[in-house]
Amino acid sequence: MTPEPVIDVVGLRKSYGIGQSSVLAVDGIDFSIARGEVFALLGPNGAGKSSTVEILEGYHDRSGGEVRVLGADPQRLHGRALLDWKARIGVVLQSTNEENVLTVRQTLQQFAAFYPHPRGIDEVIAAVGLTEKAGARVHKLSGGQRRRLDVALGVIGRPELLFLDEPTTGFDPVARREFWGLIKQLQDEGTTILLTTHYLDEAAHLSNRVGIIAAGRLVDLGPVDQIGGAEARVPIVRWRDAGGRIRELRTDEPARAVTELVATFEGEPPALEVIRPSLEDIYLQLIGHLGTEAEGDADSAADVGSARGESGPSAADTTRARTPRETEGVSA
Amino acid sequence: MSTIGLGAVRAKYEFISYFREFDALFFTFLFPVIMLGIFSAAFGGMGDIGPAGHQVNFATYYLPAMVAAGILLSGVQNLAVAIAGEKSNGTLKRLGGTPLPPMSYFIGKLGSTFVTGAMQVVVLLLFARLVFGVELPTDPAKYLQLLWIFVLGLLACALLGMALSAVPRSGRSATAVVIPLLLFLQFISGVYLPFSQLPSWMQTVASFFPLKWMAQGMRSVFLPDQFKALEVGGQWHLGWIALVLAGWLVVGLVLTRLTFRWIRKDA
């Protein structure tokens, strides 16, 4: 018997507004997260990440599909059962601008009182690196310090499941590294974590698996090193041919291809490059496909994932993957 | 921890926050004290007022109005603006992600409002006594009367403030919506202008709202009994005061119960 997943999502849909003007923010998403796993949802702004997470946190009712979080459907919980369920989760929302005049320590003391088995105040303050600011008023903290307090408030109740919605937006690189250490520590203690982020390196560093969301759909799901499928990682050999055109070849044997090119050119091939697609290349390719095709025809977007799997990327796709920012507005 | 215990925890931190926020402190806590000072100083030279033989000075005459206004501001204005602000800046959303019962949140608001409201009354009385030499009642029965009007009035005002917090779309617009509304109410309810000198249609309009009754109740506590001749019908009408305040309490309770959400619900 396999243990029940901490989060189980089947066919999740969410639309905002009614009638003609309604917008489909989440359009049929399936995934599940096992106990102790760190799962990252990646995707551009407006892709449906926060809508999905806020449904799982119990803030919003869904429009369709099934959701189970810690064995319960948050939308059907009420009264004491809802509060008991909330005591088992930790929520770090996207950054807010609260005018909190309490100190860091007072704020944590207050929130600790809400939970049945809170962590120690000083332990949590130290874990997020705010020991020196424990007596400072929250509204006087810098953006990064506030974000660390947000995380501290999310973990003070010793949650089994922690939601982190874009936790490191606005962090400097040092703060981000420290934050990653904190997440690793929580994972080692057995906390299940659902993270949304814009940062691929963050997802790669922290998560066991990632789900990539674009235009309300999950376009890929799996361990970070397998996202996009094996063919998306096939190296690219690029050179300039005799006519001055850039040529590309995708091959699992780049050395052999280069050897053949050297033989053909009877020397050094002009502008020779051997490229292994980075995670970012693969990600941009995944959401890039959807970004452009979904604009005109929402239905075709659904097929992108499978189409990519069946036929290897064409030469045009490869070019796009290498220099996406120049060829299209991926991040829009 | 129990719902009431958590309410007490919230009340403690609400109380600490209240005295660290300049806006709340000035516009709800000190405002009636300052107004009492200004009115008494400005009109003090015009002589005493009231029925012949029982005249009092201006500070004595304005004290009950300022006590009533303080209850209104501490209850309606402070809570409506504070909760609307907490709704729009993400505080409520964050609390909604924790196992804090919504009832504890309200108990916390009520608890801190009662403590700060009571402190405000004490400050007003001390200020009136020490600065303007106002004669305070010596009969313990009068203080019992003050107590029930204060508790009932503040409870009704606090619940109305909570209900009203659902109206503004943002924390910033809350101030713009609530303050003019209450200023209007204060003028027609005889807080700044003597109620007995207002046109009768204005008195009638004011009779539908709680402030007129709180002010009347406070006059019955702090003014000589002969002043009741100036009231509508020549009586203090304590029964009506209790009835109207209790009615508004129920209205506020029902509206709050129906409208409160940790976050604005989407369609």
From TrEMBL, chain A:
**One family name in Pfam for this protein:** ABC_tran
Q: Where in the cell is it found?
A: Cell membrane
Q: How is it placed in the membrane, per its record?
A: Peripheral membrane protein
* Major site of localization recorded for this protein: membrane
Instruction: Say which domain of life the source belongs to.
Output: Bacteria
InterPro entries, alphabetically?
A: AAA+_ATPase, ABC_transporter-like_ATP-bd, ABC_transporter-like_CS, ABC_transporter_ATP-binding, P-loop_NTPase
ABC transporter domain: residues covered: 7-240
Q: Name one GO molecular function term.
A: ATP binding
The reply on keyword Transport is yes
Entry keyword set: Antibiotic resistance, ATP-binding, Nucleotide-binding, Transport
Question: What are the boundaries of the region Disordered?
Answer: 294-332
Bias type Basic and acidic residues, positions = 319-332
What's the name of the protein? ABC transporter ATP-binding protein
From TrEMBL, chain B:
Alphabetical UniProt keywords: Antibiotic resistance, Cell membrane, Membrane, Transmembrane, Transmembrane helix, Transport
Q: What Pfam families does its record include?
A: ABC2_membrane_3
**Is Isomerase there in the keyword field?**
no
Where it mainly occurs, coarsely classed, is membrane
- Superkingdom, according to UniProt? Bacteria
In this protein, which residues make up the domain named ABC transmembrane type-2?
A: 23-266
Q: Provide the membrane topology annotation.
A: Multi-pass membrane protein
- Coiled-coil intervals, chain numbering: none
Q: Where are the transmembrane segments?
A: 22-43, 63-85, 106-127, 147-167, 174-195, 238-260
Work out whether the entry's keyword set contains Transmembrane helix: yes
Q: Where in the cell is it found?
A: Cell membrane; Membrane
Give the family this protein belongs to, as stated in its UniProt record: Belongs to the ABC-2 integral membrane protein family.
Q: Which PANTHER family match?
A: NODULATION PROTEIN J (PTHR43229)
Q: What is this protein called?
A: Transport permease protein
